[in-house]
Amino acid sequence: MRSIIDIMDLSVEEIDGLLNVAEDIIANPKKYAKVCDGKKLATLFFEPSTRTRLSFEAAMYELGGNVIGFSDANSSSSSKGESVADTARVISCYADIIAMRHPKEGAPYVASLNASIPVINAGDGGHNHPTQTLADLLTIKREKGRFDSLTVGLCGDLKFGRTVHSLISALSRYENIKFVMISPDELCIPDYVKQNVLIPNGIEYTEERSLEDAMPGLDILYMTRVQKERFFNEADYIRLKDTYILTPEKLAHAKEDLCIMHPLPRVNEISVAVDNDKRACYFKQVLNGKYMRMALILKLLEVQV
Amino acid sequence: MIIGQIQEGIVLDHITAGRGMKIYDVLGLGNLDCAVAVIVNADSEKMGKKDIIKISGPIDIDFRMVGLLDSNVTVNIISGGTVVKREKIELPEKITGVLKCKNPRCITTTEQELQHVFKLCNEEEKVYRCIYCETKAEFSSVE
User: Of A48, A171, A213, A236, which residue is most buried, by most CB within 10 angstroms?
Assistant: First the structure.
C-alpha cells in the first residue's frame, strides 16, 4: 500500500512508467474502460476545487470505477471537529483509494499515516500538488519531447504556488534544466525549495522581476495565479494580483516553439487573446491531467492491464 | 573550587560558557534523583571559559538534543572513576514534541493532538524542517 504526497515520492523511472501508461490510455481508451470495475475512489476535498476534483472523478469513471466523497469541508465531519487522522481511518472502510485536498499543509500526509488505503495528495495549502505536476510533465513530454536541456520560466505567485514547487522538484532530476523565477519580492520562491531542491542539485536559476526581459530565453513559460485564498491581508492581494499579465504583445519576443502553461484556474494573468496562440498549452494540460490521474490510480491500486 | 571526581556517571564537557544551565533545563536534569553538578565559567585551555555538567550515577537520557544547543559538547562516560568512552554529540534525526511549527498554514495548527516533529535536512547548518509542511524550525524557543 502506497501513497503519493510529494512528486518526489515517485522515482524518475516510475514517472516514465506513468507517462507511458497515460499515452497508452490516450491511444487505447477502450482497453482501460473497465479495469477498475468494483473499485471506489473517495474524493475528500476540504477546500473548493473544480478542476482537480472533477479530473479525479472523470479519471475513475473512465477506468470503470465509482466515486464517493465531498467537495467542501462544511459537508464533512471535519465541521464537527473530526480530525484528519480519524477521517482517513473511517474512509478506509468505505473506499479503495483517497484523493485529498486540504487547505492545511501536511494534511494528506497525516491522512496517509492513518489510512489503510492509498492516499493521493490533491493539493495541500501552498505546499504540494503532485498530480498537477504529473499533468505538467505529460504536457512537456508531448509538446517538447524531452525533459532535459530546457529553460523554464516560472511566473507569478512562486511563494504559495504549490504547483510550482512540485514542478521544480520534478524537473530538477533531469539534465541541464535552468529555471527563471519571475515574481514580485513578496511572492518569491520559498527558502525551502532553494535549500532542499535547487542548491543541493546544483540547478541553475535566476530570480527576475520583468517577464518581458526573461521571455526571449524561455522554452517553457509557466504562469500562475496570485491566490487570494493564501493571503491573510486582502490589501496585499489587491496590490500584487495584477503584477504579471501575459498578452500577445509580450509574446512578440518569445520563441516560436515556446510552451505556455498554467495550472488553471486563470483569473486575468493570461489574456484571453493568448488562447488562440498555437503556443498556448494550458487547456491541453487539463486533459493530460486526467490521463495521468488515471495512470496513477492504476499504479496505486496495483491494477494490471 | 573543587567538585569531587565521580565514580560512575556522565560528564558533559566543553559546554560553551553560559549554556550549562540551559542544557540542564532542556535535559530535565532537575528531575533526577542522583547528584548533579553544573559548573559555570570553568577555566579551559581550549575555550578560555567553559561550563561542565557532572551527573553521578547511571542514567538513561537521550543527549542528542544537546547537539542543537551547543555543538561543542563532548559526552564522557565514567566508570570506576575513569573515562571509558568519550564522544561528540550527534544531531538527532528527528525532534519530536520540543519545537513548535510556526507556519500558520501547517496542519499542526488545527490538529491539536498531532505531535510537532522536525527532521534533520542539513546537518552542517543544523537545519530541521517540519515533517508536515517543510517549514524550517526556529530554535529561538530552546536557545
Answer: A171
Mutate to test the interface with B, among A128, A162, A191, A192 (most CBs of B within 10 A): A192
Say how far residue A258 (Cα) sits from the centre of its chain: 20
In this prediction the ipTM stands at 0.85
Residue A139 among the catalytic residues: no
The answer regarding whether domain B94-141 maps to CATH 1.10.3080.10 reads no
Q: pLDDT digits over B68-98, tens only?
A: 788 889 999 999 888 999 988 888 899 988 8
Neighbouring-strand partners of residue A221: A153, A260
| Residue ranges, CATH 2.30.30.20, chain B | 94-141
CA closest to B136 among chain A residues: A192
The amino acid at residue B39 is I
Q: Give one DSSP letter per residue of A41-81, joined into a string.
A: EEEEESS--SHHHHHHHHHHHHTT-EEEEESSGGGSGGGGT
Which residues on A lie below 8 Å from B105 (Cβ)? 103-105, 125-127, 230
Out of 3.40.50.1000, 3.40.50.1370, 3.40.50.1110, 3.40.50.300, the CATH code matching A130-286 is 3.40.50.1370
Q: pLDDT digit string (tens) for A221-256?
A: 999 988 766 666 777 777 777 789 999 999 999 999
Whole-number Å distance between alpha carbons of A90 and A116:
10
Backbone angles phi and psi of A131, in degrees to 5: -75, -25
Measured CA to CA, the distance from residue A79 to residue B63 in angstroms comes to 42
Domain boundaries, chain A: 7-129+289-300, 130-286
Task: Out of 3.40.30.10, 3.30.530.20, 3.40.309.10, 3.40.50.1370, select the CATH number for domain A7-129+289-300.
Answer: 3.40.50.1370
Q: Which residue in chain A has the smallest CA separation from B103?
A: A105
Q: Which residues of B touch A106 (CB under 8 A)?
A: 106-108, 130-133
Topology of the domain comprising B9-88: Alpha-Beta Plaits (3.30.70)
